[in-house]
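worker-3 :: picked DHA2 family efflux MFS transporter permease subunit
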Amino acid sequence: MDIESIQKKPPYGAIAILFFAAFVSFLTNTLINIALPSIKEEFDISMSTVQWLATGYMLINGILIPASAFFIQRISNRILLILALSLFTIGTLLASVSPSFGVLLAGRMIQASGSAIMMPLLMNVMLTAFPVEKRGTAMGFFGLVMIVAPATGPTLSGYIIEHYSWRTLFDVILPFALICLIFAIFKMKNITPLKNVRLDVLSLILSSIAFGGLLYGFSSAGDKGWGDPIVYGTIVLGTVALILFIIRQLFMDEPMLEFRIYKHPMFALSSAISIVISISMFSGMILTPMYVQTVRGISPMDSGLLMLPGALMMGIMSPITGRLFDKYGARALALVGLTIMIVTTYLFTGLTLETSYLHLILLYTFRMFGMSMVMMPVMTNGMNQLPMQMNPHGTAMNNTLQQVSGAIGTAFMITIMNKRTESSAKELAADAMSKMDANAAPPSAEAAAEMKLHIMHEAMLDGITHAFLISTFIAVLALILAVFIRRVKPPVQSEQGNKSVIKSKRIATE
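worker-3 :: tokens ->
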């Protein structure tokens, strides 16, 4: 079946299967965030260690997604989806029965190896199945998966952690993963075109060292400090490997990740904005539950419910944003959305030990409202400038950068928070000691413990608000970049003899 006939009658059944599989995958990505404090206590490990359940998941996505362009072009989408769902299901089962943190982390990594294929596969099917004039609306509904699933995760997780063990999180996901797998086996159709391309093993090794080294270095800085040889050594190793990886891709006829697509200016701009937004978005999803549960002592259930209105808001706005994109383009939406994000993120820097629950709900909901107007319109506008045959590389590049930047950004923000918390705790402790009367009797053990707990809460609050301040400046950078967005249409391919001539069509500035 050719592309034109597919676009005239999109395979909605196959797309629905992919939507459901991607939703379960994305839900799992953030489902664990609310459970991190409980898992930390059960296995008696540090926050920087337990954080790997979240950042490690994104890291595996970041390592494997570059290879997704190869898999999508070489393997039929039906076989690829079955393989991805099989890995995801096995990982979920392993995490559910894990007797130790190491086994739990291994289960998450296997989960991620299946998840890494699902979003690029869905995006390529969507770009193949819908003509450009309908892509905004179609990708708006895709936003329901990409945004609502991660945003809904904390609410579901909060309820489960409140009433059951954290293992129930994986027990709940397992039957849905199995249902997706069964439907994929019996109902999935082949849609995307195939090419005879090969996987470059050296490129895969270099990308793994690059992204793995960078993330490990940023994650370890919270415990070891920036001056530790392991920290700066792994960051330098990752940077060198990334440079070698990029150079190798530029000199290959069939690269694993096609960096030449950055010759298209709007795609390059959309990637830059997506990186910045991912850092702000994923870090916020980690910092908010930490403030609500650890500093305020709010239950996991109420912590999850706090995020529910934001998830519902994004769900309502996503299809609407898609239609607005088709009509007005990405720049207007991005400018409005980013302005809302900047204001609400800055307001998070004013959190106190007495901030009301309603205030937190409104702040988080409006932040998600702004975010819903940015991610999909910017990404779709960039993809629209690429030729059809470059779509697998474009989606692979976008998803790689989003996962890696989100993982590194989260690790970076946690490191900033930890360092600020440590320094603030020392200052507060010294200040408390200086105020004590030297002639007075020492405080009782109970009073001393209460004072220590209060100091730690104050210090962590200072660390979290400082991290939100850094996140605000990051969002400002995205706003500056969004000013340069221009509306584009994809290149038109016309056959002249045996050569395909690409003619880029740019329409007027918005």
